[in-house]
Amino acid sequence: MKTKDVETDAGSTDLASYILAVTEQLKRERKFAAAHGYVSALHSFQDFAGGRGTPLPMDEVFTPMRLKAYEEWLMQKKKRPLKVNSVTSYMSSLRAVYNRWMPVGTPGHNPQLFAGVHTRVVSQTKRALRGWQMEKLLRAENDDLTREERRALAYFRLMFLCRGIPFIDLAHLRRQDLQGQYLVYLRHKTQKPMRVKLSPEALRLLRGLGQKTNPSSPYLLPILDAEIQDGWEQYLSYQIALRNFNRTLKQAVKRMLPGVPVSSYTARHTWATLAYHMGQSIGIISQSLGHSSIRVTETYLKPFENERIDEVNRQLIAAVKKGKWKRSMLYSIL
């Protein structure tokens, strides 16, 4: 069944049956992240509405009042209230479902339906470490960590040392991607070719971690199960590996940097931010990270612009107070 063939009669289409039909099509198209987002949103909305077996006619789901009530429920959950960006994720998936079911321009489509709920990602506080914090994690002894925590910390160090390689790219590295002192691979997200020269420390970490990999596995590191062949199951397996990594990494870092939040994104953001503060151009940083455009890199660095401006202001004022401001400099500005 093609996605566009899914029944669109507002009076008879149930949210669950519609989303499950759409996700099957998405799986066949290998759009696993979208399929996962749709199913997660469905399960969440079912929990809000009364349980997995609750009927959910589309014309009752997609009303401004119902969507607002769902948003408030998400943000006020007793066990674990969600932050704005998590709410945005669910709402964005529901909006995508609505636009499939009731395409823009068709009779009955309401372009303002989601105007009263969160559908845009909010810029969060910085997710990068300070230089001294990253140095501490690179130099820290691992004696008091569990085996799993030591491995998670080693992956984190390797991600930073390899120009902030994303965890998904690290997990999917193949044996042939290690070519002497270089990692040569394709970005999982953009298929952009990458060539990273490895420092001696990074090479030692990579080889040490690789010793735990099953000899028959095509993967360089023991993160993914090579025996899983189905694309959807591979996607779910990676999601489990990612959750386990984030949980274990937080446990390890908590011992060394109490109160400092970390995740799989932190190594990448830290590399980019430290390079930025060293004066590297955004273009070079963008190329180093394998971003599709400089605009993507700018979103990484935007939270740090004010810090850099404040530092320039501090240096300028200090220079004036110390009499280092030369008359010639004033003339050049004027």
TrEMBL record:
The keyword DNA-binding applies. Pfam families: Phage_int_SAM_5 (PF13102), Phage_integrase (PF00589). Keywords: DNA recombination, DNA-binding. It comes from the Bacteria. Transmembrane segments: none annotated. GO terms for biological process: DNA integration; DNA recombination. GO terms for molecular function: DNA binding. Residues 123-314 form the Tyr recombinase domain. Belongs to the 'phage' integrase family. PANTHER family: PHAGE INTEGRASE-RELATED (PTHR30349), PROPHAGE INTEGRASE INTD-RELATED (PTHR30349:SF64). This is Recombinase. It comes from Bacteroides intestinalis.
